Amino acid sequence: MLTKPDTEASGVVALDDRETLVEMQDLEVHFGMRGNVFGRLAGKAAGAVKAVDGVNLKLRKGEVLGLVGESGSGKTTLGRTLLGMNRATGGTIRYRGEDITEFGERKMRPLRRKLQMVFQDPHASLNPAMDIRTAVGHPLRIHNLVSSDAEYDAKVTDALERVGLTPPERYLTKFPGDLSGGQKQRAVLARAIIAEPELLVADEPISMLDMSVRAKILQLMLDLKRDLDLTYVYVTHDLASAKFFCDTIAIMYLGRIVEYGPTAEVFADPKHPYTKALLAAIPEPDPTLAVERELLRGEIPDAAKPPLGCSFHPRCPVALAGCGWEARDLRGLLERRWLELPPAEAGKERALFGDLDALSESGVTSAAVTPGRGHSAEDVLEYLRRLREEASAAEPREPFWRGVITMHAEGGRAVVEFSPAQDPRLNLLPETDVQVACHLYPGSGG
Ligand SMILES: Nc1ncnc2c1ncn2[C@@H]1O[C@H](COP(=O)(O)OP(=O)(O)OP(=O)(O)O)[C@@H](O)[C@H]1O
Protein backbone atom coordinates (compact mmCIF):
# COMPACT_ATOMS: atom_id res chain seq x y z
CA MET A 1 0.00 0.00 0.00
CA LEU A 2 1.35 3.41 -0.91
CA THR A 3 1.86 5.97 1.79
CA LYS A 4 1.69 9.53 0.62
CA PRO A 5 3.40 12.11 2.78
CA ASP A 6 0.80 13.69 5.06
CA THR A 7 1.00 17.30 3.98
CA GLU A 8 -0.91 18.73 6.93
CA ALA A 9 0.95 16.78 9.60
CA SER A 10 4.34 17.63 8.10
CA GLY A 11 3.49 21.31 7.80
CA VAL A 12 3.95 21.25 4.02
CA VAL A 13 2.48 24.30 2.29
CA ALA A 14 -0.92 23.59 0.72
CA LEU A 15 -0.83 23.35 -3.07
CA ASP A 16 -2.88 26.49 -3.61
CA ASP A 17 -0.25 28.59 -1.85
CA ARG A 18 2.69 27.20 -3.72
CA GLU A 19 4.48 28.99 -6.49
CA THR A 20 3.48 28.17 -10.06
CA LEU A 21 6.17 26.20 -11.83
CA VAL A 22 4.57 25.66 -15.22
CA GLU A 23 1.57 27.31 -16.80
CA MET A 24 0.02 26.24 -20.08
CA GLN A 25 -2.38 28.56 -21.83
CA ASP A 26 -4.55 27.48 -24.76
CA LEU A 27 -1.84 25.01 -25.64
CA GLU A 28 -2.20 23.29 -29.00
CA VAL A 29 -0.14 20.61 -30.65
CA HIS A 30 -1.56 19.83 -34.06
CA PHE A 31 0.30 17.36 -36.25
CA GLY A 32 0.03 17.94 -40.01
CA MET A 33 -1.04 14.95 -42.06
CA ARG A 34 2.02 15.27 -44.27
CA GLY A 35 5.55 15.48 -42.99
CA ASN A 36 6.58 18.71 -44.74
CA VAL A 37 6.13 22.31 -43.76
CA PHE A 38 3.35 22.90 -46.32
CA GLY A 39 1.50 19.91 -44.98
CA ARG A 40 1.84 21.24 -41.48
CA LEU A 41 0.60 24.69 -42.48
CA ALA A 42 -2.32 23.20 -44.36
CA GLY A 43 -2.85 20.75 -41.53
CA LYS A 44 -3.73 23.50 -39.11
CA ALA A 45 -6.78 24.29 -41.15
CA ALA A 46 -7.99 20.82 -42.02
CA GLY A 47 -7.05 17.21 -41.55
CA ALA A 48 -4.57 17.87 -38.74
CA VAL A 49 -4.38 15.53 -35.80
CA LYS A 50 -5.27 17.74 -32.87
CA ALA A 51 -3.24 15.79 -30.33
CA VAL A 52 -3.49 18.67 -27.84
CA ASP A 53 -6.27 21.11 -28.50
CA GLY A 54 -6.55 24.12 -26.22
CA VAL A 55 -5.21 22.99 -22.85
CA ASN A 56 -5.03 25.31 -19.85
CA LEU A 57 -3.19 23.94 -16.84
CA LYS A 58 -1.18 25.22 -13.96
CA LEU A 59 1.42 23.10 -12.24
CA ARG A 60 2.54 24.18 -8.80
CA LYS A 61 5.83 23.34 -7.16
CA GLY A 62 5.65 20.02 -5.34
CA GLU A 63 2.46 18.95 -7.10
CA VAL A 64 1.85 15.54 -8.63
CA LEU A 65 -0.42 16.11 -11.61
CA GLY A 66 -1.94 13.10 -13.33
CA LEU A 67 -2.75 13.23 -17.04
CA VAL A 68 -5.23 10.43 -17.51
CA GLY A 69 -7.13 9.13 -20.52
CA GLU A 70 -7.39 6.32 -23.03
CA SER A 71 -4.80 5.71 -25.70
CA GLY A 72 -4.77 8.58 -28.19
CA SER A 73 -6.16 11.20 -25.80
CA GLY A 74 -2.99 13.30 -26.10
CA LYS A 75 -1.41 12.71 -22.68
CA THR A 76 2.02 11.77 -24.00
CA THR A 77 2.08 14.62 -26.49
CA LEU A 78 1.15 17.09 -23.74
CA GLY A 79 3.90 15.75 -21.47
CA ARG A 80 6.48 15.83 -24.25
CA THR A 81 5.51 19.35 -25.27
CA LEU A 82 5.99 20.51 -21.72
CA LEU A 83 9.61 19.42 -22.00
CA GLY A 84 10.16 20.90 -25.45
CA MET A 85 10.23 17.46 -27.11
CA ASN A 86 7.26 18.42 -29.29
CA ARG A 87 6.68 21.92 -30.62
CA ALA A 88 3.45 23.68 -29.71
CA THR A 89 1.48 24.89 -32.73
CA GLY A 90 -0.51 27.34 -30.61
CA GLY A 91 -0.78 28.79 -27.11
CA THR A 92 1.98 29.21 -24.57
CA ILE A 93 3.99 27.34 -21.97
CA ARG A 94 5.57 29.34 -19.18
CA TYR A 95 8.20 27.91 -16.91
CA ARG A 96 8.77 29.99 -13.78
CA GLY A 97 7.01 32.84 -15.57
CA GLU A 98 9.19 32.71 -18.68
CA ASP A 99 7.58 31.92 -22.02
CA ILE A 100 9.47 28.87 -23.32
CA THR A 101 7.03 27.95 -26.08
CA GLU A 102 9.31 29.05 -28.90
CA PHE A 103 12.58 27.98 -27.33
CA GLY A 104 14.78 26.20 -29.84
CA GLU A 105 17.24 23.45 -29.02
CA ARG A 106 19.99 25.84 -27.88
CA LYS A 107 17.82 27.80 -25.43
CA MET A 108 16.15 24.62 -24.23
CA ARG A 109 19.42 22.84 -23.38
CA PRO A 110 20.03 24.39 -19.94
CA LEU A 111 16.36 23.82 -19.08
CA ARG A 112 16.61 20.13 -19.97
CA ARG A 113 18.56 19.68 -16.79
CA LYS A 114 15.65 21.00 -14.78
CA LEU A 115 12.95 19.21 -16.76
CA GLN A 116 13.39 15.48 -17.14
CA MET A 117 11.41 12.68 -18.72
CA VAL A 118 11.01 9.14 -17.44
CA PHE A 119 9.78 6.79 -20.14
CA GLN A 120 7.52 3.81 -19.98
CA ASP A 121 9.98 1.16 -21.06
CA PRO A 122 13.03 0.90 -18.81
CA HIS A 123 14.51 -1.75 -21.10
CA ALA A 124 14.53 0.63 -24.07
CA SER A 125 15.59 3.63 -21.96
CA LEU A 126 18.97 2.15 -21.07
CA ASN A 127 21.64 1.42 -23.64
CA PRO A 128 22.41 -2.29 -23.20
CA ALA A 129 26.09 -1.69 -23.97
CA MET A 130 26.52 0.99 -21.29
CA ASP A 131 27.30 0.04 -17.70
CA ILE A 132 25.20 1.59 -14.93
CA ARG A 133 27.95 3.99 -13.85
CA THR A 134 28.09 5.49 -17.36
CA ALA A 135 24.33 5.43 -17.98
CA VAL A 136 23.25 6.96 -14.68
CA GLY A 137 25.98 9.61 -14.74
CA HIS A 138 25.38 10.57 -18.38
CA PRO A 139 23.50 13.83 -17.56
CA LEU A 140 26.46 14.96 -15.42
CA ARG A 141 28.70 14.83 -18.49
CA ILE A 142 26.13 16.38 -20.84
CA HIS A 143 25.50 19.34 -18.57
CA ASN A 144 29.13 19.63 -17.41
CA LEU A 145 28.22 19.28 -13.77
CA VAL A 146 31.36 17.62 -12.40
CA SER A 147 35.03 18.53 -12.49
CA SER A 148 36.58 15.21 -11.52
CA ASP A 149 36.01 11.48 -11.77
CA ALA A 150 35.81 11.29 -7.99
CA GLU A 151 33.00 13.84 -7.94
CA TYR A 152 31.28 11.95 -10.75
CA ASP A 153 31.46 8.67 -8.86
CA ALA A 154 30.24 10.28 -5.65
CA LYS A 155 27.18 11.68 -7.40
CA VAL A 156 26.38 8.41 -9.18
CA THR A 157 26.77 6.52 -5.92
CA ASP A 158 24.46 8.96 -4.13
CA ALA A 159 21.82 8.67 -6.89
CA LEU A 160 21.95 4.86 -6.78
CA GLU A 161 21.52 4.92 -3.03
CA ARG A 162 18.55 7.24 -3.29
CA VAL A 163 16.75 4.88 -5.67
CA GLY A 164 17.49 1.84 -3.53
CA LEU A 165 20.14 0.21 -5.73
CA THR A 166 22.30 -0.66 -2.74
CA PRO A 167 25.06 -1.21 -2.07
CA PRO A 168 25.82 1.02 -5.05
CA GLU A 169 29.23 -0.53 -5.69
CA ARG A 170 27.47 -3.72 -6.64
CA TYR A 171 25.57 -1.96 -9.43
CA LEU A 172 28.16 0.44 -10.88
CA THR A 173 29.75 -2.10 -13.21
CA LYS A 174 26.59 -4.00 -14.05
CA PHE A 175 24.88 -3.74 -17.43
CA PRO A 176 21.14 -3.29 -17.97
CA GLY A 177 20.87 -6.94 -18.99
CA ASP A 178 21.99 -7.93 -15.47
CA LEU A 179 19.08 -6.06 -13.85
CA SER A 180 15.41 -6.92 -13.35
CA GLY A 181 12.71 -4.65 -14.77
CA GLY A 182 12.19 -2.91 -11.44
CA GLN A 183 15.94 -2.40 -10.96
CA LYS A 184 16.21 -0.96 -14.47
CA GLN A 185 13.44 1.54 -13.74
CA ARG A 186 15.28 2.47 -10.52
CA ALA A 187 18.42 3.09 -12.60
CA VAL A 188 16.36 5.22 -15.02
CA LEU A 189 15.07 7.23 -12.05
CA ALA A 190 18.64 7.62 -10.75
CA ARG A 191 19.63 9.06 -14.13
CA ALA A 192 16.59 11.35 -14.09
CA ILE A 193 17.40 12.85 -10.68
CA ILE A 194 21.18 13.05 -10.91
CA ALA A 195 21.25 16.52 -12.49
CA GLU A 196 18.97 17.84 -9.73
CA PRO A 197 15.87 18.48 -11.81
CA GLU A 198 12.81 20.33 -10.67
CA LEU A 199 10.15 18.61 -12.76
CA LEU A 200 9.83 15.03 -13.91
CA VAL A 201 7.36 13.99 -16.58
CA ALA A 202 6.84 10.27 -16.02
CA ASP A 203 5.10 8.58 -18.94
CA GLU A 204 3.51 5.32 -17.78
CA PRO A 205 6.62 4.61 -15.66
CA ILE A 206 5.24 1.40 -14.17
CA SER A 207 3.03 -0.04 -16.90
CA MET A 208 5.73 -2.37 -18.26
CA LEU A 209 6.79 -3.61 -14.86
CA ASP A 210 5.74 -6.68 -12.96
CA MET A 211 2.66 -6.12 -10.81
CA SER A 212 4.71 -6.93 -7.70
CA VAL A 213 7.11 -4.00 -8.16
CA ARG A 214 4.73 -1.32 -9.45
CA ALA A 215 3.69 -0.01 -6.04
CA LYS A 216 7.32 -0.01 -4.89
CA ILE A 217 8.41 2.18 -7.80
CA LEU A 218 5.58 4.64 -7.19
CA GLN A 219 6.47 4.71 -3.50
CA LEU A 220 10.09 5.37 -4.44
CA MET A 221 8.97 8.24 -6.66
CA LEU A 222 6.99 9.74 -3.78
CA ASP A 223 10.02 9.40 -1.48
CA LEU A 224 12.25 11.08 -4.08
CA LYS A 225 9.72 13.86 -4.51
CA ARG A 226 9.70 14.54 -0.78
CA ASP A 227 13.49 14.34 -0.38
CA LEU A 228 14.41 16.31 -3.50
CA ASP A 229 11.47 18.73 -3.63
CA LEU A 230 10.34 17.47 -7.04
CA THR A 231 7.23 18.16 -9.06
CA TYR A 232 5.69 15.41 -11.19
CA VAL A 233 3.50 15.08 -14.22
CA TYR A 234 2.32 11.47 -14.24
CA VAL A 235 1.00 10.27 -17.58
CA THR A 236 -1.17 7.17 -17.34
CA HIS A 237 -4.27 5.36 -18.47
CA ASP A 238 -4.36 3.59 -15.11
CA LEU A 239 -6.74 5.42 -12.80
CA ALA A 240 -6.09 3.12 -9.86
CA SER A 241 -2.44 4.19 -9.65
CA ALA A 242 -3.32 7.83 -10.33
CA LYS A 243 -5.69 7.76 -7.37
CA PHE A 244 -2.87 7.00 -4.96
CA PHE A 245 -0.14 8.92 -6.67
CA CYS A 246 -1.56 12.24 -7.81
CA ASP A 247 -2.62 15.40 -5.97
CA THR A 248 -4.52 16.69 -8.96
CA ILE A 249 -5.83 14.92 -11.99
CA ALA A 250 -6.66 16.07 -15.50
CA ILE A 251 -8.87 13.69 -17.46
CA MET A 252 -8.10 14.02 -21.16
CA TYR A 253 -10.23 13.09 -24.11
CA LEU A 254 -9.16 13.68 -27.71
CA GLY A 255 -6.70 16.44 -26.94
CA ARG A 256 -8.80 18.27 -24.40
CA ILE A 257 -9.17 18.28 -20.67
CA VAL A 258 -12.72 17.28 -19.80
CA GLU A 259 -12.35 17.27 -16.03
CA TYR A 260 -9.70 18.66 -13.72
CA GLY A 261 -9.43 18.93 -9.98
CA PRO A 262 -8.01 17.52 -6.75
CA THR A 263 -7.72 13.74 -7.16
CA ALA A 264 -9.70 12.90 -4.02
CA GLU A 265 -12.58 15.14 -5.11
CA VAL A 266 -12.68 13.79 -8.66
CA PHE A 267 -12.66 10.20 -7.44
CA ALA A 268 -15.26 10.79 -4.75
CA ASP A 269 -17.69 12.51 -7.08
CA PRO A 270 -16.75 12.33 -10.78
CA LYS A 271 -18.70 14.81 -12.86
CA HIS A 272 -17.98 14.22 -16.55
CA PRO A 273 -19.68 11.14 -18.05
CA TYR A 274 -16.28 10.12 -19.44
CA THR A 275 -14.66 10.27 -16.00
CA LYS A 276 -17.58 8.30 -14.59
CA ALA A 277 -17.14 5.62 -17.25
CA LEU A 278 -13.38 5.42 -16.66
CA LEU A 279 -13.87 5.08 -12.92
CA ALA A 280 -16.55 2.44 -13.38
CA ALA A 281 -14.12 0.43 -15.48
CA ILE A 282 -11.47 0.16 -12.74
CA PRO A 283 -11.22 -3.53 -11.95
CA GLU A 284 -12.64 -4.49 -8.59
CA PRO A 285 -9.87 -6.11 -6.50
CA ASP A 286 -12.40 -8.48 -4.94
CA PRO A 287 -14.11 -10.37 -7.79
CA THR A 288 -16.94 -11.50 -5.49
CA LEU A 289 -18.00 -7.85 -5.31
CA ALA A 290 -18.12 -7.56 -9.08
CA VAL A 291 -20.87 -5.21 -10.13
CA GLU A 292 -22.28 -4.81 -13.56
CA ARG A 293 -20.16 -2.22 -15.29
CA GLU A 294 -21.29 0.23 -17.83
CA LEU A 295 -18.45 -0.01 -20.30
CA LEU A 296 -17.76 2.71 -22.80
CA ARG A 297 -19.27 1.92 -26.15
CA GLY A 298 -17.19 2.34 -29.27
CA GLU A 299 -13.61 3.46 -29.49
CA ILE A 300 -11.89 6.77 -29.09
CA PRO A 301 -12.49 8.54 -32.44
CA ASP A 302 -9.85 9.53 -34.97
CA ALA A 303 -8.17 12.70 -33.69
CA ALA A 304 -7.91 13.95 -37.29
CA LYS A 305 -11.71 14.05 -37.51
CA PRO A 306 -12.95 14.74 -34.01
CA PRO A 307 -16.71 14.67 -33.44
CA LEU A 308 -18.58 17.94 -33.55
CA GLY A 309 -19.27 19.76 -30.26
CA CYS A 310 -18.26 17.65 -27.30
CA SER A 311 -15.87 15.02 -28.67
CA PHE A 312 -17.25 12.47 -26.25
CA HIS A 313 -20.89 12.78 -27.37
CA PRO A 314 -20.99 9.71 -29.68
CA ARG A 315 -20.02 7.48 -26.73
CA CYS A 316 -21.83 9.40 -24.01
CA PRO A 317 -24.80 7.61 -22.42
CA VAL A 318 -26.41 10.88 -21.29
CA ALA A 319 -25.63 13.26 -24.18
CA LEU A 320 -28.08 16.12 -24.70
CA ALA A 321 -29.59 17.69 -27.81
CA GLY A 322 -26.84 20.32 -28.19
CA CYS A 323 -23.82 18.06 -27.64
CA GLY A 324 -22.81 17.91 -31.32
CA TRP A 325 -24.95 15.41 -33.21
CA GLU A 326 -24.06 15.17 -36.88
CA ALA A 327 -24.62 13.05 -39.98
CA ARG A 328 -21.96 10.46 -39.18
CA ASP A 329 -23.64 9.74 -35.85
CA LEU A 330 -26.64 8.47 -37.82
CA ARG A 331 -24.37 6.15 -39.74
CA GLY A 332 -22.80 5.00 -36.45
CA LEU A 333 -26.23 4.30 -34.96
CA LEU A 334 -27.37 2.28 -37.98
CA GLU A 335 -24.17 0.29 -38.22
CA ARG A 336 -24.20 -0.56 -34.51
CA ARG A 337 -27.78 -1.78 -34.87
CA TRP A 338 -27.07 -3.90 -37.94
CA LEU A 339 -24.10 -5.53 -36.24
CA GLU A 340 -26.37 -6.71 -33.45
CA LEU A 341 -29.14 -8.05 -35.69
CA PRO A 342 -29.14 -11.48 -37.33
CA PRO A 343 -27.47 -11.04 -40.76
CA ALA A 344 -30.65 -11.64 -42.81
CA GLU A 345 -32.59 -9.02 -40.87
CA ALA A 346 -29.70 -6.57 -40.96
CA GLY A 347 -29.41 -7.10 -44.73
CA LYS A 348 -33.10 -6.28 -45.20
CA GLU A 349 -32.83 -3.08 -43.19
CA ARG A 350 -29.58 -2.11 -44.92
CA ALA A 351 -31.27 -2.46 -48.31
CA LEU A 352 -33.55 0.49 -47.46
CA PHE A 353 -30.49 2.72 -47.78
CA GLY A 354 -28.32 3.58 -50.74
CA ASP A 355 -24.73 4.72 -50.37
CA LEU A 356 -24.00 5.66 -46.75
CA ASP A 357 -20.60 7.19 -47.48
CA ALA A 358 -22.09 10.68 -47.70
CA LEU A 359 -22.90 10.33 -44.00
CA SER A 360 -19.24 9.93 -43.06
CA GLU A 361 -18.28 13.54 -43.44
CA SER A 362 -17.57 15.29 -40.19
CA GLY A 363 -19.29 18.43 -38.97
CA VAL A 364 -22.45 18.00 -41.10
CA THR A 365 -25.51 18.84 -39.05
CA SER A 366 -28.09 17.49 -41.44
CA ALA A 367 -27.99 14.02 -42.94
CA ALA A 368 -29.43 13.54 -46.44
CA VAL A 369 -30.02 9.83 -46.93
CA THR A 370 -30.41 8.37 -50.40
CA PRO A 371 -32.91 5.47 -50.42
CA GLY A 372 -31.82 2.06 -51.66
CA ARG A 373 -32.94 0.71 -55.02
CA GLY A 374 -36.70 0.10 -55.06
CA HIS A 375 -37.25 2.21 -51.92
CA SER A 376 -38.44 5.76 -51.37
CA ALA A 377 -37.47 8.54 -48.97
CA GLU A 378 -40.75 7.81 -47.17
CA ASP A 379 -39.69 4.18 -46.60
CA VAL A 380 -36.47 5.40 -45.02
CA LEU A 381 -38.32 7.94 -42.88
CA GLU A 382 -40.83 5.35 -41.73
CA TYR A 383 -37.97 3.08 -40.70
CA LEU A 384 -36.16 5.87 -38.84
CA ARG A 385 -39.37 6.88 -37.05
CA ARG A 386 -39.83 3.27 -35.96
CA LEU A 387 -36.30 3.22 -34.58
CA ARG A 388 -36.99 6.43 -32.71
CA GLU A 389 -40.16 5.01 -31.19
CA GLU A 390 -38.43 1.80 -30.17
CA ALA A 391 -35.65 3.85 -28.57
CA SER A 392 -38.08 5.99 -26.57
CA ALA A 393 -39.48 2.85 -24.95
CA ALA A 394 -36.07 1.26 -24.27
CA GLU A 395 -33.81 1.62 -21.25
CA PRO A 396 -31.20 3.03 -21.25
CA ARG A 397 -32.40 5.71 -23.63
CA GLU A 398 -30.40 6.10 -26.84
CA PRO A 399 -29.24 9.74 -26.62
CA PHE A 400 -28.85 10.11 -30.40
CA TRP A 401 -32.54 10.86 -30.85
CA ARG A 402 -32.36 13.82 -28.47
CA GLY A 403 -30.27 15.57 -31.08
CA VAL A 404 -32.74 15.09 -33.96
CA ILE A 405 -34.89 18.16 -34.64
CA THR A 406 -36.77 17.06 -37.75
CA MET A 407 -36.96 14.25 -40.28
CA HIS A 408 -38.52 14.95 -43.66
CA ALA A 409 -38.35 14.07 -47.34
CA GLU A 410 -36.62 16.49 -49.70
CA GLY A 411 -35.68 15.99 -53.35
CA GLY A 412 -36.19 12.23 -53.11
CA ARG A 413 -33.98 11.89 -50.07
CA ALA A 414 -34.70 11.48 -46.36
CA VAL A 415 -33.29 14.42 -44.44
CA VAL A 416 -32.49 14.26 -40.74
CA GLU A 417 -31.66 17.57 -39.07
CA PHE A 418 -29.75 17.90 -35.85
CA SER A 419 -29.72 20.53 -33.10
CA PRO A 420 -26.96 23.14 -33.35
CA ALA A 421 -23.89 22.22 -31.32
CA GLN A 422 -21.66 24.06 -28.94
CA ASP A 423 -18.21 23.12 -27.67
CA PRO A 424 -18.39 22.73 -23.91
CA ARG A 425 -15.89 24.93 -22.05
CA LEU A 426 -13.97 23.84 -18.98
CA ASN A 427 -15.77 25.53 -16.14
CA LEU A 428 -15.35 25.61 -12.35
CA LEU A 429 -18.35 24.04 -10.65
CA PRO A 430 -19.84 26.04 -7.78
CA GLU A 431 -18.73 24.98 -4.29
CA THR A 432 -16.08 22.60 -5.63
CA ASP A 433 -12.48 22.80 -6.83
CA VAL A 434 -13.40 20.79 -9.89
CA GLN A 435 -13.56 22.05 -13.45
CA VAL A 436 -15.62 20.17 -16.00
CA ALA A 437 -16.34 20.62 -19.71
CA CYS A 438 -19.83 19.20 -20.12
CA HIS A 439 -23.24 20.62 -21.05
CA LEU A 440 -24.85 18.74 -18.18
CA TYR A 441 -23.49 21.48 -15.93
CA PRO A 442 -24.31 25.19 -16.08
CA GLY A 443 -21.60 27.52 -17.35
CA SER A 444 -20.22 25.17 -19.99
CA GLY A 445 -21.26 27.58 -22.72
CA GLY A 446 -24.24 25.47 -23.81
N1 LIG B 1 4.51 12.70 -34.14
C1 LIG B 1 3.23 12.55 -34.41
N2 LIG B 1 2.76 12.76 -35.66
C2 LIG B 1 1.44 12.62 -35.96
N3 LIG B 1 0.51 12.28 -35.05
C3 LIG B 1 0.91 12.05 -33.80
C4 LIG B 1 2.29 12.17 -33.41
N4 LIG B 1 2.38 11.88 -32.07
C5 LIG B 1 1.12 11.60 -31.65
N5 LIG B 1 0.24 11.69 -32.69
C6 LIG B 1 -1.22 11.49 -32.63
O1 LIG B 1 -1.71 12.35 -31.62
C7 LIG B 1 -2.77 11.74 -30.90
C8 LIG B 1 -2.42 11.72 -29.42
O2 LIG B 1 -1.33 10.82 -29.21
P1 LIG B 1 -0.64 10.62 -27.81
O3 LIG B 1 0.42 9.58 -27.96
O4 LIG B 1 -0.25 11.93 -27.25
O5 LIG B 1 -1.84 10.04 -26.95
P2 LIG B 1 -1.78 9.23 -25.60
O6 LIG B 1 -3.01 9.58 -24.86
O7 LIG B 1 -0.49 9.47 -24.90
O8 LIG B 1 -1.85 7.74 -26.11
P3 LIG B 1 -0.94 6.49 -25.70
O9 LIG B 1 -1.34 6.14 -24.31
O10 LIG B 1 -1.31 5.45 -26.72
O11 LIG B 1 0.49 6.96 -25.83
C9 LIG B 1 -2.94 10.34 -31.50
O12 LIG B 1 -3.98 10.42 -32.45
C10 LIG B 1 -1.61 10.09 -32.17
O13 LIG B 1 -1.76 9.21 -33.26
UniProtKB/TrEMBL annotation:
Residues 22-279 form the ABC transporter domain. GO terms for molecular function: ATP binding. Pfam families: ABC_tran, oligo_HPY. CDD domains: ABC_NikE_OppD_transporters. The keyword ATP-binding applies. It comes from the Bacteria. SUPFAM superfamilies: P-loop containing nucleoside triphosphate hydrolases (SSF52540). Keywords: ATP-binding, Nucleotide-binding, Transport. PANTHER family: D,D-DIPEPTIDE TRANSPORT ATP-BINDING PROTEIN DDPF-RELATED, TRANSPORT ATP-BINDING PROTEIN. Belongs to the ABC transporter superfamily. This is Oligopeptide/dipeptide ABC transporter ATP-binding protein.
